[in-house]
Amino acid sequence: MSSARIINTGSALADNPAPTGTVMNVSEEKRTPPAPRWTFPKREGSGDKTWARLGDEWRALDGVIEGHRIYVKWTYTDDGRSHLSGLHLSDVPITADLLRAIQVGRLENAGQNMANAMLDFLNDLIPLRREKGEDPDAFADRVAKYYKMFSGISSKPAKMISETSGVPLATVHGWIREARLRGKLPPGKRGKAG
User: At a CB cut-off of 8 Å and minimum separation 6, what does 115 contact?
Assistant: First the structure.
């Protein structure tokens, strides 16, 4: 049994009330299968040794290659644009067919969508300021959270915190140093300002 679909190619006019159209056999129409669902697993408590070895800049992604996890890294420009800058495959034979099957454009879009969502979220944040009488440990926690969020979309998170909070950059650097000394952030890397 063949099914058909009418595709309307014209509009109904007052002097021609019947719409014009073309009948097409649906079985002849090429359909693109739906793209597989990609998921970003949570890092905390995952026990993923590869992810731990790669570092915080990398994200795990399931569903790109059936039965395998890949790891991707995006870099972000100061204006919030993302660029795919790393792709890690492990425990899977790498072939030309496999590499062609990876939808790089979709990976780039995923990074940009994450960046846009993060920028919207960050623009709605309450500016980071030290409140009078605030517990220093609680403030260091807040500084660490802001730093981690902003470092997800910028290579200069301290500068972004400074600009969005209306606080001098030197002050933000002091807060970050204090958060590091209190163990809320890992030690800084030599030659890498942030």
Answer: 74, 76, 80, 81, 82, 153
pLDDT digits (tens, 9 = 90+) for 93-127: 889 998 888 888 888 888 888 777 777 777 777 88
Q: Are strands 21-25 and 68-76 parallel, antiparallel or unpaired?
A: unpaired
Secondary structure letter of residue 40 according to DSSP: -
CA 74 to chain centre: 8
Closest CA relative to residue 54, chosen from 38, 75, 71, 67: 71
Predicted model pTM:
0.52
Question: Cα-flanking dihedrals φ and ψ of residue 176, to 5°?
Answer: -65, -40
Element (H, E) at 68: strand 68-76
In angstroms and rounded to an integer, the radius of gyration of the C-alpha atoms of the chain is 25
